Amino acid sequence: MNRIISLDKAGFGYISGKSLIRMFFLGALFLLAFISAYGADNPSEKEKTSLDIRAYLEAGDKGAIYPNKIQLEMLRSIVPAERFQPAPSIINRNYWDKFGASELGKKYLKEALNAVETEPEVPISDEIYRRANKEGNRKIYKPRYYRTMDRLEHFILAECITNNAKFLPQIETYIRAIMDMKSWVHPNHDDSENTVLEGKRVTIDLGARKFGLVLALADELLEDKLSAGLRKEISEQLQWRITDSYLKSAREDDPESNKWIRSTSNWNSVCTSGTLFTILTTSEDREKRIAAIGSAINSMDYYLSGFGEDGYCSEGTGYWNYGFGHYLYLAEILYDYTDGNIDLFTFDNPEKLQKVANFPENYQIHPGLYAPFSDGVTRVKKGGDNFAYIMAAKYYGAKKPENFVSDEAVQSLIVWSDIEKYTQQDQDYSPLPPVTYFDDYGIVISRGQQRIPLSIAIKAGHNAENHNHSDVGSYVIAYGDDIVSGDIGAPSYIAGAFSEDNPARSSWGHPVPKINGKLQSNGKEFRGEILSTSFTATSDKLTMNIEPAYEVPQIKKLTRSVENTKSGDGSISIEDHIQASAPVSFGMAIMTLSEYEIVDPNTIILNENGQKLKVSITGSGGKLKIQDEKVPVEHLREGGPAFRIGIDFTRPVTEGTIKLQYEPVKN
């Protein structure tokens, strides 16, 4: 998206000499008044210099989001006097005729026409809001909530394309319906007392920032097509629901709301990008725009710290697309608005951002297959929005997606004019490397090289990651295109899904040890550490220390060793070794969503879509027993049911080893 200043067609008639002199004289007076009024504080009157983000961050107050005086001064020479223009308004027919003729424009218009008779689905009753809040039930609220935003976006762009007033009645109806909502936040993001619904506080969440963004987009693009009264109401609502709420939180005037401003998760980038869009496009107060930009830069320092220096995203590929996509949209906003003088595409660490942008490609076990660590998914749905992939291809040379699937109108307006440069229909297959090591977070992906590859992804990590699971030492084993054993992924987002005690989120529901009946503890200090690695053409090996993940004082040593043997049909071994100062109960587990058969006390057969793996179980230090049970979680994002096959010593041990050997079953 480029900042565009359009000149509409105008006719020039005869101008007399006296009139010309008068116009020149008045123009000179205006220029002198302008210079006097704005002086050196007006960035257009002095040379702009690019912001050194590293110096900007170093000048800030430790832990503060709202910029201090030094930071504000660094921004004043950069931020324009005028508001941000995300795209030309409806009066620029050249722009909108071209957009309407594009495939993306045709899609928006078609979908808008199909929905033009549909009434808004908000406000939703207080009863349903409270029920959704109490039950964690997203289905009774979220779809209606987001469909309303999506349709309004379509109507706005369709009206800009057609310019025939066909969509204006519905646009006004939808805007008024949104402004009639007591709360713009999703009920799951209100507190248990529903204080946002009750009007006791204002906060911005993933949905509220979108409502604000869409109303700001309507006001900016449609201009006088909307009535003066409606535009005034929009301005007032955006002021208190978005601008004031954000700046109060940044100043610590309202520390309980908008805590995401210091988050390292997708919430920060998503909420910040939508909030900043609203403030920059609607606020006439330049100082507030400067403060909002400064706050956003400080906030993004927190967000980017959530990625490993190796580019690893603990939230997984789905949240990488959502969170990093909105970060890149924020970067585009600020780059365009300041004529390139604020560059979040490099921030203060271009090497790290390059790695973050290429994370999905490097994280694959096999093409299109990922480890579902934390709340990640095994596959990214085709047909889902992929803005982050487009922007990563554009700015970081990442692999081009086959096409562009839009999610939000503001993002579509960035890429529509040159989308073909960053998509590629006929993809050239590039083999993945035999092994990828994210050494900061301690993630190893060892890819089998057989005709049907046998591969493993295993993590050290820590137990305070974004969308955290207690999963230090967790792994997944893939045979061909199917995951057969290991991490079962996340529980679906219903009431109790984010509880540390949820069996699919605690270490009980992961293929990791259980010691003296205790599971892994939560916190960044409860971590794993990779002690050694060896990657060769025929074998990948690693050993990690997972003792720090447990609060069991008797543990003297607890290691997990892995080997992926790549010769022949391949085999993968997982070996846990414990030493303790006193006898402790000890066991590990096989987790699976596959069919399985316990053949005997030392053999299990796993079967996923006809692909079979034999698991041979051996131990030293005591006798082993096997006990399988269904994971008591009804709704898993990867399907289900899932099973935990516990493998435990029958008696406490002071030293012991349990080894699992996975190998293909030949037909």
TrEMBL record:
PANTHER family: CHROMOSOME 1, WHOLE GENOME SHOTGUN SEQUENCE (PTHR38045), HEPARINASE II_III-LIKE PROTEIN (PTHR38045:SF1). This is Heparinase II/III-like protein. It comes from Christiangramia antarctica.
